[in-house]
Specification:
By secondary structure, the chain is of the alpha+beta class. It is flat, with a radius of gyration of 54 Å. Residues 489-541 form the PAC domain.
């Protein structure tokens, strides 16, 4: 027997332990107090230093943000002063021109000259200087990417009722383009009949302010090396050591996304961010605290930071002092522990000798008490301590007897409980790896119909034999898995009673293990849960019912058309029932000869029956089935339970074992049939499935009704749209004097587009009415829209098309209602040919009945020709006068300014007068060259009119002439730095019967036109010889393009494309270049034409024949 520790030894260890623990606790507390004081002092130093650095960086950032606000305010005030200065300059210039010009000029000419002078003084290319009526627009800077014509229209509309004042205007720009907000100052000078609008793009003005702000912020320094940093909310660095780099994903050693945290703090109005500074471009890699604030409206943040670990040197010195003090105190503690250990050894030795005597006496008494069968006689004991031990022993014996009696009673109660429990109680033992049932009690006979002894070891049947065959395998797996992984198991399974009834049982058991951890026994209980399983099945069926209907409802709202909707619903129904095939037939009518398979969805294992969309003959069998389905208010089931048999040829053809059919009765058209096929086995359709199928069919019928109505409505709308688009009859609807519907035929009649007609404002259609018919047609339309019955329903009138042609139309109108209001439905027929036929007939009759009338008609035509020639002469003189007056007015105006500047210079009043005079002389030289060019074009036009065929007898090379024209044009276009001119003549060009001078002049006309109307981009000249004889030349530009209706008119003399506004940068010439070009090309035996899409440039083509 192993000898244990003695009491004296335990006493020694206890005293030593107590003394040592006391010393260690006191010493540890002593050392801890020193360490705590050190930590407190270090934290206080860090906090003071941290707070000082935070206050410093916050104050610097607030000062920087205040500086930004001050710079922005100063820039805004300077911009306002600049706009007011432009208005004053315009007024002064107009006064000079009106007062000092020798002849009284036209007001329009003065305004135009004023705009040109202001444009000449503004050296910026990004501007919008324009004249529109009595309004002058001076907007600089102005974005290049915004169409000036569209911007001018928006400004004119926004300031239509403004005479004076200041406002902001946000321009509407194409999707994806940068926005633009204009600051506008409006002043109206009544004495001149002139309104001046000065403005500037706030975005472009802001860009210059941003550059100035960044320059000022980068110069700020504080403390020793403190500086500011900043960037955009997108992560780009604008200020600091890594300016221009994307810092969005920069992280420190702790995973902090530095810039993202800074941006978040700035967006919240400002805040501190702590992080470890990465070593960017030599930066110090240490812990840093930064403060950032936002710059409103710019999506910028500005901040600065300070390193917070400078205080660590002081703290490290104090830490070394603390370590030395701790070493001294540890030595003192060890010395005290050694002294106390010697004292404890002495005291324990004395105590052990006293305890040995007492223990010997205790052992003798305890031996006497434990050897007897009865209770110990307490009176026979002498010492009081042993008497207490004897009483305790007697009490233990009494308790043992009571426990034995209680155990016997518990066994009796357990037997009674088992016999009355509504279940089966069992006990199994593991004997050599086989589970043997040792006890089976409870309601065995009521639950299984078998005698309990059948399941006890040695009985005629095992309990496993009554488990349902489909459940035996997985119940065995549950036993094996649960017993190996845990101490309890649970299994729900079915049994087959002796009478054949199937019941659900729930078994719960617990496994007990022996000392080696092996399975020793199982105690468990089995309950009948058939009622619970039936309730669960009804609950799950109801949930399945609701979920299926919900899927059908969702499918009704999916799909772009009826077929897709039906397919989604049918797939949901087939999936819900687990059917092998789902189908829709239409029509379900026994009177029809055929029906169509409108939809068929099958499982991949079973091919489609007839194929979707196929037409099937209505035989006798089908009529009987359809009649039965139509007569039944509920679905018809063909399965073993109903007795309805599927015809043999149907079963063999489609592989059907059972089917379910239901008649759908939508509100539109004839009935449909919804059906399901089950091909795997003869499925019996349950009452719950039939109820679900009935409700699904009703939902499908409702969705089908809505879809069919919408399909008919869509078909009706499509038929009307097709009719309105294909008919030659013009159709339009007029409501409140505005066109709300118009077809293409109407647009063709008035020679415009449907979009332009729909965009007309109220009464805008009146512009197409002939002046002689306008009052009558307008009155009839107004009365018709008001619902007046006393109107003329049909009459003929004349229309003036968009190209200026006059046509005769016959009108039929009828009052109708659109959106609850009266409207006028109008149909138009072009009867111009009929009218012309009538006129021709009348002319023919008049010619044959009277020679005098014929002579009068000839005189009338001659007079009309003279009138036309006179009009052409007047138009020519007017155009020449206007084209020459504008440069002459500029020359005269600049002459007056030069005279004034020279007088000031001679009097010594203005040191910059000579420079401005030289600039004005440059403008006069430019206008003089322009005037000379106009005269040359007039002379050349007259010369070309008089000449005949310009082809030469000899053939000449063409390459050099074209290159010379390109080089000349390149010199002219050089003033526009954003425009490039290129030439592609890589192929071999033949010689043709054309003078090089004429060819050079023609190409020059086209290039001059392209340079005038292309602000930026490129001009490309391509020359090819497709057949090796003649040449094809194309000049393509990236200008604003030419409307389709102008592609032919631009080749007429004096014609210029109408823009609706007078833009200074687009006043180029008299409109003779393209006319001269066509005249020369046609006299050379070729042809010239243009192609363009408005807003995307233009391409001019020349085709000249080969030598011959």
């Amino acid at each position: 027997m192993r000898k244990g520790m003695t009491i004296s030894g335990a006493s020694l260890l206890g005293m030593v332990a107590v003394s040592w623990i006391s010393i260690l606790v006191i010493g540890g507390f002593w050392v801890y107090s020193m360490y705590r004081d050190f930590r407190f002092e270090a934290d206080r130093l860090r906090q003071d230093h941290y707070a000082e650095q935070r206050n410093l960086v916050k104050a610097e950032v607030e000062d920087a943000v205040g500086l930004v606000a001050e710079l922005r305010y100063s820039a805004s005030q300077a911009l306002l002063r600049e706009l007011e200065s432009r208005v004053r300059d315009v007024r002064a210039l107009v006064e000079v021109l009106k007062h000092d010009l020798v002849q009284e000029p036209d007001e329009a000419v003065i305004r135009l000259a004023t705009v040109r002078l202001m444009a000449a003084q503004d050296g910026s290319e990004a501007r919008l200087y324009a004249l529109h009526g009595a309004s002058i627009y001076l907007i600089s800077p102005f974005p290049r990417w915004i169409d000036k014509g569209d911007a001018l229209a928006q400004i004119e509309s926004a300031l239509a009722s403004t005479r004076t004042g200041r406002s902001k205007l946000s321009l509407k720009v194409p999707e994806g383009a940068a926005g633009c907000t204009l600051l506008l100052t409006v002043n109206e000078f009544d004495s001149f009949g002139l309104r001046v609008v000065a403005g500037a793009s706030l975005e472009m003005a802001e860009e210059s302010v941003k550059e100035k702000v960044l320059d000022r912020l980068s110069e700020i320094r504080y403390a020793k090396n403190g500086s500011l940093f900043g960037g955009t909310y997108a992560g780009e660095s604008l200020l600091g050591p890594v300016r221009g780099r994307d810092m969005w994903n920069v992280i420190d050693v702790n995973g902090v996304k530095i810039v993202q945290e800074l941006v978040a703090a700035a967006k919240s109005g400002g805040g501190f961010v702590s992080y470890v500074m990465p070593p960017l471009d030599g930066q110090r890699n240490a812990e840093k605290v930064s403060y950032v604030m936002p710059i409103p409206d710019w999506d910028w943040y500005v901040g600065t930071g300070a390193f917070v670990n400078d205080i660590e040197n002081v703290i490290n010195l104090k830490r070394k002092q603390l370590e030395q003090n701790i070493e001294d105190r540890v030595l003192l503690i060890l010395a005290g522990m050694a002294a106390l250990s010697l004292l404890a050894l002495y005291l324990s030795h004395r105590l052990s000798r006293k305890l040995d005597n007492n223990v010997a006496a205790f052992i003798r008494v305890w031996t006497q008490a434990t050897s007897g069968k009865d209770e110990i006689d307490i009176k026979s004991l002498y010492y009081s301590e042993f008497r207490q031990l004897a009483e305790a022993a007697n009490y233990m014996v009494a308790e043992l007897r009571a426990v034995q009696d209680a155990l016997s009673g518990s066994l009796e109660r357990f037997s009674s409980l088992v016999s009355n429990i509504p279940g089966i109680v069992f006990h199994c033992d593991n004997e050599n790896g086989t589970w043997e049932r040792k006890y089976v009690g409870g309601s065995v006979l009521e639950m299984t119909g078998h005698d309990p002894q059948m399941f006890i070891d040695g009985g005629s049947a095992a309990f496993k034999s009554i488990i349902h065959p489909e459940d035996r395998e997985w119940v065995g797996r549950i036993y094996e898995d649960d017993l190996n992984s845990r101490s309890t198991y649970t299994a729900d399974y079915r049994i087959i009673r002796k009478d054949g009834e199937i019941r659900w049982l729930s078994e719960r058991g617990r496994v007990l293990r022996d000392d080696a951890g092996r399975h020793a026994r199982i105690d468990g209980v089995i309950f009948d849960v058939s009622d619970r399983k039936l309730a669960e099945e009804e609950y799950y069926n109801h949930i399945h019912f609701l979920e299926t209907l919900e899927r059908i409802d969702r499918a009704m709202h999916m799909g772009g058309n009826t077929q897709e909707m039906l397919r989604n619903i049918m797939e949901a129904i087939r999936h819900a029932f687990g059917a092998d095939r789902a189908w829709l037939l239409h029509p379900c009518d026994v009177e029809e000869e055929t029906f169509t398979v409108r939809l068929e969805l099958s499982d991949r294992m079973f091919a489609n029956a007839d194929g979707e969309g196929s037409e099937v003959s209505m035989d006798h069998c089908a009529r009987e089935v359809f009649g039965g389905v139509l007569d039944s208010p509920v679905p018809l089931a063909y399965d073993p339970s109903t007795g309805r048999e599927i015809p043999d040829y149907v079963r063999e053809r489609y592989g059907i074992q059972s089917q379910l059919m239901f008649a759908l009765r939508p509100r539109v058209g004839k009935p449909w049939i919804l059906g399901l096929h089950h091909c795997r086995e003869a499925r019996v359709w349950t009452g719950e499935e039939i109820r679900l199928f009935t409700e699904a069919g009703r939902r499908l019928s409702d969705g089908l009704s809505t879809a069919l109505v919408l399909d008919r409505l869509t078909e009706s709308e499509e038929q009307f749209r097709t009719f309105s688009e294909q008919t030659m009859l013009g159709l339009l609807v007029l409501q409140e004097n505005r066109i709300i519907f118009v077809n293409q035929a109407t647009a063709d009649i008035v020679e415009t587009s449907v979009e332009e007609l729909m965009a007309l404002p109220p009464n805008g259609f009146e512009r197409f009415l002939h002046p002689d018919d306008r009052d009558f047609v307008v009155d009839q339309g107004r009365r018709k829209q008001a619902g007046d019955p006393d109107v003329v329903p049909s009459y003929s009138w004349r229309v003036v098309t968009a190209t200026g042609r006059v046509k005769w139309l016959h009108l039929h109108s009828k009052s109708t209602r659109v959106n609850g209001r009266t409207a006028d439905l109008i149909s138009l027929v072009d009867i111009s040919a009929l009218k012309r036929a009538e006129e021709d007939l009348e002319s023919l009759v008049a010619q044959r009945t009277s020679d005098l009338a014929r002579k009068a008609e000839e005189l009338k035509r001659a007079n009309a020709e003279l009138t036309r020639l006179d009009d052409l002469k007047s138009f020519f003189l007017t155009t020449v006068s206007h084209a020459m007056r504008t440069p002459l007015t500029s020359v005269l105006g600049y002459s007056v300014l030069i005279r004034r500047e020279l007088e000031r210079a001679l009097e010594g009043r203005n040191g910059g007068s000579l420079e401005r005079a030289v600039d004005n002389l440059d403008v006069m030289e430019t206008e003089g060259k322009r005037l000379h060019h106009l005269v040359d074009q007039f002379m050349e036009l007259a010369d070309m009119e008089a000449q005949g065929d310009l082809r030469t007898p000899d053939a000449h090379p063409v390459g050099e002439a074209i290159r010379k024209a390109v080089e000349s044009a390149r010199e002219e276009c050089r003033t526009n730095v954003e425009l490039t001119l290129e030439m592609d003549d890589s192929g071999t060009l033949p010689e043709i019967n054309v003078s090089p001078a004429h060819l050079e002049r023609v190409v020059g006309y086209l290039l001059e036109n392209a340079c005038n109307y292309t602000r930026e981009g490129s001009i490309v000249v391509r020359v090819t010889s497709p057949n090796g004889a003649g040449i094809d030349l194309a000049v393509a530009d990236t200008g604003k393009g030419i409307p389709d209706e102008e592609l032919e008119a631009i080749f007429k003399p004096f014609h210029q494309v109408e823009t609706g506004d007078t833009l200074v940068d687009e006043i180029k010439g008299a409109g003779l270049g393209l006319a001269l070009c066509r005249m020369v090309v046609e006299k050379l035996g070729g042809r010239v034409w243009a192609e363009s899409a408005k807003g995307r440039g233009a391409v001019f083509h020349i085709s000249l024949p080969g030598a011959g």
